[in-house]
Structure formats: C-alpha cells, structure tokens
Amino acid sequence: MDVLTLSRLQFALTSMFHFIFVPxxxxxxxxxxxxxxxxxxxxxxxxxxxxxxxxxLFLINFAIGVVTGVTLEFQFGMNWAEYSRYVGDIFGAPLxxxxxxxxxxxxxxxxxxAFGWEKVSKKAHLVSIWLVGIGTNLSALWILLAxxxxxxxxxxxxxxxxxxxxDFLAVATNPVGLLKFGHQVTSGYTVAxxxxxxxxxxxxxxxxxxxFFKKSFAIAAVFGFIATIAVAVIGDLHAxxxxxxxxxxxxxxEAVWENCSNxxxxxxxxxxxxxxxxxxxxxxVPSLLSILAFHDPNAVIKGLNSFPKSERPPVTPVFMSxxxxxxxxxxxxxxxxxxxxxxxxxxxEKNRWFLYLLVxxxxxxxxxxxxxxxxxxxxxxxxxxxxxxKTSDAVSKAVTxxxxxxxLVTFTLLYTLLGFVDIYLLMKFARKGPEGHNEKVAHESDxxxxxxxxxxx
Length: 457
Prior knowledge:
- By secondary structure, this protein is mostly helical.
- The chain is built from 15 helices and 8 strands.
- The protein has helices at about 5-20, 20-40, 45-80, 80-115, 120-150, 170, 175-205, 210-245, 245-255, 290-295, 315-345, 350-360, 365-380, 400-430, 450-455, and strands spanning about 155-160, 160-165, 260, 265-270, 275-285, 300, 385, 390.
- Strands 1-2 form a two-stranded antiparallel sheet. A two-stranded antiparallel sheet has the order 3-6. Strands 4-5 form a two-stranded antiparallel sheet.
- Strand 1 (about 155-160) and strand 2 form a beta hairpin.
- The longest helix has about 35 residues, at about 210-245.
- Residues about 435-455 have low confidence and may be disordered.
C-alpha cells in the first residue's frame, strides 16, 4: 500500500459514510415540510404530531451528517494538497457559496424549527422548515456543481501552472452538474420516502397508532412515486450527457469494447477486462443503446478499446454498479406504485406481505445511492478532473504513509462509533413512535431490529 492508494481508500471511506446521511437529509426535510404544511392547512393535530415525529428523525440524521462531512473538507488540504493547489480557484468557489449561504441558512432555521414550537406563529414555523429544506437542497446544488466540474471541466484556463476560473456562469450552469443535482436530489427523496414507508409499515404490522402511520404512509407513497419517476427521467438525461462528455465512462457503464453504430443494449451481459471483451452478451435490443445515448439509432458508441489502457476506468465495478442501480431503481418505482395503489384503495393493512417487504426495503435506496456514486467516481478514473488532472498527480507530496495509516484507522473507528450511535437513535425513536400514542398490540423486545422483528412474525 502506498500513500496514493491509502489516500483514495480513506476518502472513499469517509465520503461514502458521510453519504449515508445526505440523501435522507435532502428528502426528509422536504417531507417534513409537506406534512407541516398539511397541519397548517387543516389544523389537524395528527399532522402536527407527524411533523414532530419525522422531524425528530431528520434532526438526528442531520446532526451526525454534519459531523461526518467536516472531515471531507480537511482532506482536500491534507491528503490532496496538489489537487487543491491546482484547481482550488475553481473548486473552492461553489464550496464557499455552499458554506456561507446554503449551510448558514439551513443551520439558522433548523434551530428556529426545532425550538420554535408554540413560540412563533404556525406560519412562521412552517416557513422555517421550508427554508431548512430549501437550504439542504441548495447545499447539494453547490457541492454537486463542484463535483460536476470535476466530471466535465468548463469555464477555466490553464495559467500560471494551475487551473483558473474565467467564467463563473459556465461553472454554475454546467449541464453535468445540474443533471447530477437533479438525479441526486430525487434519489434522496426516494430514500426518504422508503424510510417513512418502511417505518410506517413496521408500526402498521403491529396495529400501533394506525391513523398516524396510514397518513404518513400515504404522503410518503405519493412523494416516493413522483420521486422514482423523476429519478428515471433525469437519470436517462444524465446518462446521455455522460455519453457525450465522458465516453470512456459510458463505455464502461455498458461494457462496450469496440466502436459500434446502431449499438444494441444487451439485457444480459458481463465484462471480462483481462481479455477486453464480454464473457456474456445476450438478449440484445437492436439500436437501443445508441438511442438512449444520443437519441439516434445510427449514433456511434465509442468503445473502450478506443482509449489507451492507462485512461480507461475499472470496467467491472462501474458496469456492475450501474446495472444494480438501474435494477433497484426499477424496483423502487414498482414498490412505490403498489404502495400508492394500496393506500388509495384502503387495503394497505390487509396486504401484510407488502408491509413486510417495505420494512426489508428500507436499506435498498441507500445502497442504490452508493452504487450511483461508485459509477460517478470510479468511472471518472484515472482522472480526478476529467482530462485535466490525474488522481495520481493530486495527492499531497508532504504526507507520509504512517500519517495516512493513523488517520485511516482513526476515521474508521470514529465512523463506526457514529454509525452505531445513528442506528441506535434512529431505531429508538422510530420504534417508540409519536409522543402520546398508545400501543394496541404487544411486540417483541425493543432490542430486536426492524428486520429481525419482522422475520419473527
């Protein structure tokens, strides 16, 4: 193991762990705002309890997410100093806006919302949670615009031995960054929807506070169904943009080795990197890949063999992550649609198999989000800034191997502890339910997990 490999491993560990919290923060802030809006509109106290209950889970997730995000920024100066020196003029601008505008706004108004119940008017309190939701999503926008620039650098010149910004508007309107934002935000909404539906399903299986959790489920099902459709539509647009701006990544996503016009999409395929071909290529749909990539059946898909080996991304992890992500996304659309149907028909509690399925499905959108980032970041390799700077040139020159090992072990232990704290707190308050509710059916010990508890019934 060298400094470069361990630095990459450390950043992967810390960023993927941090990203456990980001999608739920994005989605649950908006869902809580929608629920409180219903309370202000109707005056129904159930909606107020719902906003408090789901908002408490949001606060837990938000707090730990902030803690885990701080270490990422330090690594740019510690492990990746050469990267920061070379492109900091551009990369730092959107991150500075995120910190001084979006994060400041959400941090201020989250305090108003958390401590302002009965202290400010209903409408002022409602405005505070909407500003929190808008702030969290604006934070994602600026961070993803920074990442989008790494995927497709625009608005810069190479001057004085570094990349310097010459067109901020080009960076802020980079189509890759905007599509990444849309895809990620709707993916976060999907995470939140399945989080709420899964916890609601768990309580409905035990007939605990059914009115409360049927209402929660109904709102989340509508939210989730719209979100899953949006994920699919924006994801298609995003993939087409990748085909145009990062053809080597797109070729790895679909395991295309040779240039091909009228390129088919093989429904069953598996790459063999060592022999630069596919072990399996079955069930081709004629011209579909060309249509999806360029909306033209005659378009040419550039194959991996058109790129030097040193500039190809690792094919197998990118290909498998992309296929699994798409498969899970299709599953989410189906489950959200069924949830909406059963909720509208009033037959949700009768379909216990479906409620059990949703409890088990809570982790799946998290996994899909992580797979999406594997596609985005591993698929960009060997570049840290596509076509401009390689990852091997970005690592700090002053950092030593023992220092990286120490920080890697420390972060691993710290994040493991934070992970247990997060799971414990979320499960504790999710299982407890809303304040003042009465359980109607006894259930297993509070020490048993959602999944294990579901399996015993």
